[in-house]
Structures are given as structure tokens and as C-alpha cells.
Amino acid sequence: MPAHHHDNSDLTKNQALVYDTLNAADGPLSAYTILDQLREAGFRAPLQVYRALERLQALGLVHRLESLNAFVACSHPSCEEDGTVAFAICETCGRVFEFTDAELKSRLGAWAKTTGFRPQKTTIEMRGICAECKAA
């Protein structure tokens, strides 16, 4: 995944290590996979990873994929301003594509307005097969 647009200069050592691990990954990683990859860097307990992930999520640098119970580095330049983020997850290769869609956001907003629902955050996960895997 590409380097992110956010300023990550204020991260602690652990946060930077977790972020760099996710940013270098080819797909989503569970907290325990991150822990395993960072043991040589001094990580010993899952709590170290979870604390770093919590802060990285609050900063908008990392997203949690609920359906996979895994994390990915954010790759969309304005997802936190947009408020609606979507992911297409390839079930063959495991790659995750992050995107936003103005029409989708508008339709969800209209539904929320007519029902009186006040969304705090909207995350959509779509699973299937990416074009590269489909072509193979």
C-alpha cells in the first residue's frame, strides 16, 4: 500500500513500527500477525499492538476491517473528511482497495436524514474477486 498522506511525525516508536508494518503489508494484518512481525523490535504483548492500533485509528492512519478482524494502512487521501469509507476485499489474493463514492455517501445521508438516524461513521466492506485475480 502506498505511503499515507497524514503527518505521522508525532507517532511514538511503537505506533510508528505498527504503522510501518501495515503500510508495507500486501494485505490486511491481524493484531497477532503484527505482534509476531514486531517481536524482534521488542514487542512482547498484544496490548502493545492494540494500543498503537487504537491511536493510529484515531489519527486516521489505519482502518479496521470488521469482517476480517484485521487492519490496513489508510490509502485514501481524504477519507476522514469524507466520513464514508468503503473497502473492496479480494477473497482470492487478499488485497484491499479503499475508496469513497460521493453518490453512495449522498444516498446514505439521505436515508439517515429521512429516518432521523445520526451516523457517526460509515464503513462499507464489499467482498469478491479483484480484476487481476479474475483475469488469471
Task: Please describe what this structure looks like.
The structure is a single chain. With 136 residues, this protein is of the alpha+beta class. Helix content is 40%, strand content 19%. The protein has 2 domains: 13-73, Arc Repressor Mutant, subunit A (Orthogonal Bundle); 79-135, 2-Layer Sandwich (Dna Ligase, domain 1). It is built from 6 helices and 5 strands. Residues 1-5 have low confidence and may be disordered.
In short:
With 136 residues, the protein is of the alpha+beta class.
Give the overall shape: globular
Rg, nearest Å: 16 Å
Q: Please, how many helices?
A: 6
| The CATH top-level class label of the largest domain | Mainly Alpha
| Order of helix and strand elements from N to C terminus | HHHEEHEEHEH
Assembly context of the chains = single chain
Distance between the termini: 21 Å
- Measured by DSSP, the beta-strand proportion falls in 15-25%
The named CATH superfamily of the largest domain:
Winged helix-like DNA-binding domain superfamily/Winged helix DNA-binding domain
- Low-pLDDT stretches are 1-5
What is the tally of beta strands?
A: 5
